[in-house]
Amino acid sequence: MAGIHKISHPIVNSELSKLRLSSTSPKEFREGINHIALILGLEASKDLEEETFDGQTPIAAFKGTVIKPRVGLTPILRAGLGMTDALLTLFPSAPVYHLGLYREKITLQPVEYYSKLPAQPPVDMVYLLDPLIATGGTAIAALTMIVDWGIPADKIKLLCVLASQEGLKNVQSGFPGLEIWVAGIDEMLTKEGLISPGLGDTGDRLFNTMRP
């Protein structure tokens, strides 16, 4: 279902509050991102189409179900890696297509430096993993790459831990058919394009590369 879906859950709220704290260790930060990503993935998957099959238990025959669409995971490097394991828990056979994008510090524009998308998409839908949406530029660049690859916007689910109001508006205006699943929304952006109060640089906090 297209639109912005904000998760309302006490565990998500508690985990997000812990992520915001500057005193949270890299280990705790990684665990928090993983926990929130798992809940986001579950919530975003409630409407996946199923198909049935006939099976046999040790006791009797039964009618089971499997997920019908072939799902691919697309984390945006490097912060998106923090969400990948959680989604692989839900979709253990899903291919993972890494996209390398960074935001140029002066212009705040996204710069592509890596893409693992094959020539033709062997999947029916994609979960795009990006923990933070500040201005929305990086997410829009990644979405453009995926749509140009051959996956329509209504077959993409964007999962993010925290987003700004402005960033969500920018992404939604560019891709109105997109599903966006978010754990928290902040209203403010700093003049440097950072979410405020936010939670800092997700990549640095995930991988313990914060500068003193």
Automatic annotation (TrEMBL):
Keywords tagged on the record: Allosteric enzyme, Glycosyltransferase, GTP-binding, Nucleotide-binding, Transferase
EC supergroup of this enzyme: transferase
MF (Gene Ontology): GTP binding; uracil phosphoribosyltransferase activity
Superkingdom in the source lineage: Eukaryota
CDD domains: PRTases_typeI
Pathway: Pyrimidine metabolism; UMP biosynthesis via salvage pathway; UMP from uracil: step 1/1
Obligatory cofactor(s): Mg(2+)
Keyword presence, Nucleotide-binding: yes
InterPro entries reported for this sequence: PRTase-like (IPR029057), PRTase_dom (IPR000836), UPRTase/APRTase (IPR050054)
EC number in record: 2.4.2.9
Start and end residues of each Phosphoribosyltransferase domain: 8-209
Family of this protein: Belongs to the UPRTase family.
Protein name: uracil phosphoribosyltransferase
Organism: Lentinula aciculospora
